[in-house]
Design brief:
12 strands; Cell division protein FtsQ/DivIB; membrane; 6-stranded mixed β-sheet; 6 helices; POTRA_FtsQ_type; elongated; 213 residues; 3-stranded mixed β-sheet
């Protein structure tokens, strides 16, 4: 009898939470957004106030928010008794590239997500067909993002005519002939001390035979 009454009570509580406004959405909080307006997140989230929290499909809501171009991924959580919390992780620009319609920002995953002026310190990308499906773009970004911060901070431009012809132009005009994306860690370790030597072009495409001109 006690077990039966407990089950009935539990079913009643679940039913109350599911069908009545006892545990309904009264507040939606958005955190982590800087470049994406909160109103845009709320509109895309599409969760009405007054909806029972148990009826909120948090996974579907997170996918809707993640579809915003500037959003890398999002998490949607139920916070009882009456709050939905949305955590937004925005895309960060790794490079920018010029196109007829304007300057595109691209993240480290080769996703072009905005047309707007680049923030200070973001290097230019010069490839023939910038995009996620372009191996040259992918390898150029792999080289850039694998660099140690002291070296990456000096980069003004990453240019590549092919996957084996990646060239790095530093902010002071000097150039690193990188070659392919292979042995990037070793090339980075060689590049930093090598840049202490006088020269304009530093060829580290073959780490075993570097040259300075």
């Amino acid at each position: 009898m006690i077990i039966a009454l407990s089950v009935v009570a539990l079913v009643g509580l679940v039913a109350a939470a599911w069908f009545t406004p006892v545990l309904s959405v009264r507040k939606i909080s958005v955190v982590g957004n800087v470049g994406v307006p909160g109103d845009e997140v709320l509109t895309t989230l599409a969760i009405p106030t007054g909806k029972p929290l148990l009826q909120v499909d948090v996974d579907a809501a997170a996918r809707r928010v993640a579809a915003i171009p500037k959003v890398d991924h999002a998490r949607v959580e139920r916070r009882y008794p009456s709050t939905v919390r949305v955590t937004v992780v925005e895309r960060a620009p790794a490079v920018f590239y010029d196109a007829p319609e304007g300057t595109h920002l691209m993240d480290a995953g080769a996703v072009a997500y905005a047309i707007e002026p680049p923030p200070p310190g973001v290097p230019r990308l010069k490839v023939e067909r910038p995009g996620r499906e372009d191996p040259v773009t992918v390898d150029a970004l792999k080289v850039l993002t694998s660099m140690p911060p002291p070296l990456r901070a000096q980069v003004g431009e990453v240019a590549a005519g092919s996957i084996s012809d990646i060239r790095i132009t530093l902010l002071d005009g000097r150039q690193l002939v990188w070659g392919s994306a292979e042995n990037t860690e070793r090339k980075s370790a060689i590049a930093l001390p090598l840049l202490g030597q006088p020269g304009k072009v530093y060829d580290i495409s073959s780490p075993d035979l570097v040259t300075v001109k």
